[in-house]
């Protein structure tokens, strides 16, 4: 508004045309009331607000935001509009409800609490998506100031606190089961200002001092009535009278007054109240007759650090609790269309990666490996940690068992993370020779971002990188390269792919970790929502056939489940951390997903849409769709807003529905 | 760490020397555990944490921060050290306690609650600074994400909630009374992890269903004992027995179990518990034998919008509630060494400014005007709003009364905010002529940042600005100019001052509002703490004899006391808003100070230190002290850290104590 710190005198003080004049600054106070909130002030008055008599619309702003929005505490209110969503069967579609108090109606240090109640979504033919099963609510909690953790809201008490001057967000997910009949499903979400639990506990429930009083009175009453040898009937009458007096005094306790009037089931809000005072968010979901394949078309393998689990949950390797914890993590992560592997790092980036903690002959192993949601699994190469004969024998037996199974085609070995020199390459080759002696069709995955140092493979670093398959053939089948190497040059993809031999079963996969950094797609905290989701758009456009991510739970060491989550030094915030221990946020042991993990799932689902479209109209048309909608044009040219995502999905729906 | 988005291949991936190697990224997992929190993990275990058995030091970080620090939610922990403070009598000195959870010990969606209990501060000669009277605790609440609002902590339940991954801050103020004996006062602050009120209300207090059960049992017990005609002694025995059984069952209610064991005063923590599990912050305060003058040496006049008060608190002008509200604001602001004036803007920036809402012949007027804490007061020029004969007569009578009083020397008229053209200058001159006819020694204050447009006062804008006294003499005595005009050019002060006639009682005051902006001192939200405090350092160094600020409560219009605080469009955040309505944060009606208002008070106190020093050693030495300590060298060269502030104060203490 004002040149400010420059030494300019008169005449420099101008007011921009659009800004209103300002009280006290060149405007005669006329700007006062310029941004009039339009509160229905008269009904509220100057005293403490009785939220049961005031429409919640007067107490808070409510509006919806797409799942790719990072709704910050400073997010400004928008008009409330109906939410229209599209989802296939076996798909999860999410959006957010943003809430911001207009006034404070609580007396306990927060602006107020709101209750969020969702109806089932119903179709005109009577089919339903049921709340809590298919519809879930989570509050969005900031991590390092960035909205990221999605903490489940207790369905029995679906309330969240709002703070003065802060926008809160609730993440609503609709999970469409595989068997859900297609159709238009409609429902409503009621958002209602309520007393906070603290307000309630203060006014409705018995405070400590009252409980002591009650306790003492009950005891003294018991002293009166306690059976003994009575001297006379008169004494008994007196005792009964005296007990009655005490009892009547107790019944007069103010904290018990509402018990007389009410029916005893006052905690859930009745429908009339909701109809009269709640903000109603209308929600419609079109379920269409496409079913996302249960097995993801693109295997995306994600690491879970067993070390972190052992430390934080104080579990000894191999104990029952340890197996339970790994099992819990495995099953929880499967819902995100990713194929987990557990991992432990040895020295020089040698890595023990395994999808199932049980040996191949254990019943759990077959359950794990043949789970249709698992697109790929890592077979543990146990000798990587201790190269004993026993380890080698056990490995051989493991391969013997697995290679005979139908799921063997999903198996891979991940032996080394980013080998850097000829010595490390030789190790991989030696292991490969061993493994191929057990089964000639083993698949070995190797991650890399450069050629081996100490060899003169090629004159330039990029050429050395591109020529890696020549060095690792036949010791690697899955050549997994960092997206960081490409930078924004998508055209380099063809150089990588040109070196591969699909006829020998060779595949090109990619990964992201510390790099690439902004503005390219990655999963760091603080990146835009579409930037998170675009990692998978990039994979699909570049044509890789699989994806690897190094870590989902790789926060800093802690020995207590509820310890603060610290990101590791030297890593960009959020790198290697896609979910959090539930214990940090509540007494729940369920992991808490990040918004980034949800956007990974969305990206994986987008791939299925794009694949469906391409299967009908060809890959060129699929690529044209990406471009035409403006959703994704390249690693530094993709949509920053949500709109094109819905346009793409809508176009697939329109052109592919039967 | 990594070139990232550039198209660089192998070899570019380097690790900086100081960063540890990172699991999964070129380091073999060795960075895991690098930043080991050093938790006393073994005592905590993997289950729910029992905060009564664990030292709070294992549950949270506690450290102190100076009052000029903006402690953000992302503030990193520091070691806990003893806090050493220095204060004169009649001075307020503040610091902050920062708190950050190491783990979560609550089960209700927050990391946990802490109780903060302060001992009295005692001197070796037995003198005391008493908690709640002289020592107050307020929690620092972010406004637009910036720590700013200071919400009082209930002394009866001094608890605050901590959230996972967030640093919270408590603002501790020590108010040294005028009569406090000098000496070294020592005390401690105990910070103890406690159950949250919500945890407590769930487990300790009676939930609704339990209350209903209790109510029903009490009623049925009363039915048994209620006096009536008994058929036999046996019936009475049976009734007494039956009542006893019911009473025993009630006493077995789990919610009453702790009443048996405890002493009935369970809410305050006993000393043993605190000694065993609390984090102890040692605090020492040196009170020295200087007493800050009750009347501030530099009059600082600050506006309070009566319009905002009327609207937000739904008060009709002139009603009893309206007088109460103004009185409340006046008295509350006096504690900050500022001299409030109420104001209402007319058109073209004509302004009605008045310090006392009662007429001069009202007893309250004398109470207001002769309050020694008031350094200057505005006399209302009523005809500015409606220029009737009645208004003129009332004004004449007002001046007649006031000019005979000893406090008349504190009086000033503030008629027009920033006149811009010759027409507005003429209005001021006309009013001045009228006022001087009532009393020749009236003082008129005029704010301005430029010369009048439409006159050819001087060839340049700065010269036109400097020559304003030539136009306004004798119609203005207090020439109050914007610091923005000076920019960083302190040397221009002499040009302004050279035009004034101190022999005619002319004074130079300054003001800040929208400008100057960063990096110069001002009170906008988001500026550094020393930048807030430096406004007054600047005033003292430049030698102005007074200061004006346009508004302390000029947030956007609202018609509900607890309505969200919105800053006005077109103003930098925080401009014109130095405190908030208490109703936004709790049920309290007490205004909530901003950290900026506290830093204004600190700056006003610094002026008294500098004045004391200069009165002993001369102004040149005072200026040298500013420079030598590095506290303030110029509008863009002042300390960003707190250290030099304490050095300056310590130097004044050492060289001026008797």
Automatic annotation (TrEMBL), chains A, B:
Protein name: Glycoside hydrolase 123 catalytic domain-containing protein
Biased composition (Polar residues): 1-18
Pfam family membership, one: GH123_cat
Glycoside hydrolase 123 catalytic domain location: 392-612
Residue ranges of the region described as Disordered: 1-25
Lineage, uppermost ranks: Eukaryota, Viridiplantae, Streptophyta, Embryophyta, Tracheophyta
């Amino acid at each position: 508004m004002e040149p400010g710190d420059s030494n300019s005198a008169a005449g420099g003080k101008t007011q921009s045309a659009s800004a209103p004049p300002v009280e006290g600054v060149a405007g005669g106070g006329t700007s006062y009331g310029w941004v009039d909130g339009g509160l229905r002030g008269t009904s509220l008055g100057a005293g403490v607000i009785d939220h049961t008599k005031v429409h919640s619309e007067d107490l808070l702003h409510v509006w919806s935001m797409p799942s790719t929005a990072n709704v910050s505490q400073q997010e400004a209110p928008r008009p409330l509009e109906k939410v229209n969503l599209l989802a296939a069967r076996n798909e999860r579609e999410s959006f957010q409800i943003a809430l911001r108090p207009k006034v404070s109606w609580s007396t306990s240090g927060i602006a107020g609490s709101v209750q969020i109640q969702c109806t089932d979504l119903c179709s005109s033919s009577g089919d339903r998506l049921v709340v809590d099963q298919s519809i879930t609510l989570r509050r969005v909690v900031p991590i390092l100031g960035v909205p990221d953790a999605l903490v489940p809201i207790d369905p029995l008490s679906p309330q969240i606190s709002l703070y003065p001057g802060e926008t809160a967000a609730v993440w609503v997910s609709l999970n469409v089961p595989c068997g859900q009949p297609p159709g238009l499903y409609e429902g409503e979400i009621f958002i209602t200002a309520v007393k906070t639990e603290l307000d309630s506990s203060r006014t409705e429930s018995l405070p400590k001092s009252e409980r002591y009083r009650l306790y003492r009175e009950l005891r003294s009453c018991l002293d009166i009535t306690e059976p003994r040898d009575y001297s006379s009937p008169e004494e008994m009458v007196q005792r009964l009278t005296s007990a009655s007096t005490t009892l009547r005094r107790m019944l007069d306790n103010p904290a018990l007054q509402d018990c007389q009037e009410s029916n005893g089931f006052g905690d859930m809000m009745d429908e009339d109240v909701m109809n009269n005072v709640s903000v109603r968010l209308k929600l419609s979901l079109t379920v269409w007759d496409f079913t996302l394949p249960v097995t993801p078309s693109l295997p995306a393998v994600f690491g879970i650090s067993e070390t972190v689990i052992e430390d934080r949950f104080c579990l000894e390797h191999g104990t029952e609790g340890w197996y339970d914890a790994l099992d819990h993590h495995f099953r929880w992560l499967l819902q995100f269309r990713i194929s987990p592997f557990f991992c432990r790092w040895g020295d020089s980036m040698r890595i023990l990666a395994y999808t199932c903690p049980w040996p191949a002959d254990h019943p759990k192993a077959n359950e794990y490996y043949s789970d249709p949601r698992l697109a790929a699994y890592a077979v543990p190469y146990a000798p990587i940690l201790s190269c004993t004969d026993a380890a080698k024998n056990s490995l051989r037996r493991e391969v013997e068992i697995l290679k005979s199974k139908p799921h063997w085609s999903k198996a891979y070995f991940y032996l080394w993370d980013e080998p850097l020199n000829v010595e490390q390459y030789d190790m991989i080759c030696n292991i490969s020779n061993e493994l191929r002696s057990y089964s000639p069709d083993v698949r070995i995955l190797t991650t890399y971002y450069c050629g081996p140092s100490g060899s003169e493979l090629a004159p330039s670093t990029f050429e050395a990188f591109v020529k890696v398959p020549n060095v690792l053939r036949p010791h690697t089948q899955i050549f997994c390269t960092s997206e960081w190497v490409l930078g924004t040059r998508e055209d380099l993809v063809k150089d990588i792919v040109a070196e591969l031999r699909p006829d020998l079963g060779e595949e090109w996969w990619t990964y992201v970790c510390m790099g690439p950094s902004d503005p390219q797609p990655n999963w760091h905290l603080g990146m835009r929502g579409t930037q998170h989701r675009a990692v998978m758009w990039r994979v699909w456009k570049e044509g890789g056939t699989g994806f690897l991510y190094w870590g989902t739970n790789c926060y800093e060491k802690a020995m207590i489940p509820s310890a603060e989550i610290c990101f590791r030094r030297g890593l960009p915030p959020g790198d290697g951390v896609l979910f959090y221990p539930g214990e940090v946020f509540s007494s729940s042991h369920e992991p808490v997903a990040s918004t980034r993990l949800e956007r990974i799932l969305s990206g994986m689902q987008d791939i299925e849409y794009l694949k469906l479209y391409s299967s009908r109209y060809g890959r060129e048309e699929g690529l044209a769709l990406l471009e035409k909608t403006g959703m994704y044009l390249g690693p530094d040219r993709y949509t920053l807003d949500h709109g094109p995502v819905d346009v793409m999905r809508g176009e697939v729906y329109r052109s592919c529905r039967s």
